[in-house]
């Protein structure tokens, strides 16, 4: 936002901090419990950050709607209204994510099991921090706005007639270089765009028909793409860091990668190996293959 009062930069930063606290708490708990830390677990913070920021935007949007509905209400009723709107969505999202990753702990691969344990636990902590830590930050930010304080320095914003003040002082303490006090804004421009322009546009019957055709083309392309997917996972990432599998694959790639894959022949029927004629037939088959 352009308003020096309604700007929520610190609020957004605290939302990212909330996700970071969830990562630290979950990783610390798992390490304390002795769960192995493998290289795939290093990808988990990016997942937690994505979900944490999404929950943050849901909370902020619900708070904004509640504050517009009840401008004269106290902080308790505003926070209660925010949780009644946002907590359900955040809870369902967290439950599905946690369930998906904890189901992944049933796999036979130790590295995948560790990754799912770390990530699932981090989602639980992310949920707890969103509803506690970030909720408290919302209230503090609301009190700052009520006190007409600047978003950066938290100093009271007012018109200062002293012309000798620098532009930096005016921007951080008054609100703008022109020494004009910033009033709280109304509805966000993005909300106005989607409500007045984008919504009516996509509900036009010809646009809806075009969107259906585009989605059909997208769906067909996706199905075709799924049939072309090839496995490309590095098996070294599925093992623990101290597993013998890692140096085995390293040496195999270093010394034998130029020879191509090994060719194996399996006899699936019962064979009388004690019969000399059968053995000669097998040896002859092997020579033909070579």
Keywords:
transmembrane; 290 residues; 10 helices; mainly alpha; glycoprotein
Explain what the structure shows:
The protein has 290 residues and is mainly alpha-helical. The protein folds into 3 domains: 179 residues, no CATH class; 33 residues; 31 residues, no CATH class. The chain is built from 10 helices and no strands. α1 packs across α2, α1 runs antiparallel to α5 and α3 runs antiparallel to α4. The chain is elongated, with a radius of gyration of 30 Å.
What kind of oligomer do you see? single chain
N- and C-termini, Cα separation: 73 Å
Radius of gyration: 30 Å
Enumerate the spans where pLDDT stays under 50 for 5 or more consecutive residues.
177-184
Number of strands: 0
Structural class: mainly alpha
Helix content: 55-70%
Strand content: under 5%
Number of domains: 3
Tell me, rounded to a whole number, the average pLDDT. Answer: 86
Task: Give a quick account of the main beta sheet: strands, pairing sense, barrel closure.
Answer: none
In short:
Residues 1-140 form the SSD domain. By secondary structure, the protein is an all-alpha fold.
Secondary structure elements and their pairing?
Elements: H1 9-32, H2 44-69, H3 75-103, H4 110-131, H5 133-146, H6 167-174, H7 189-202, H8 205-227, H9 245-256, H10 276-289
Helix pairs in contact: 1-2, 1-4, 1-5, 2-3, 2-4, 3-4, 4-5
Keywords: Glycoprotein, Membrane, Transmembrane, Transmembrane helix
Protein name: PTHD3 protein
InterPro entries: Patched_domain-protein (IPR051697), PTHD_SSD (IPR003392), SSD (IPR000731)
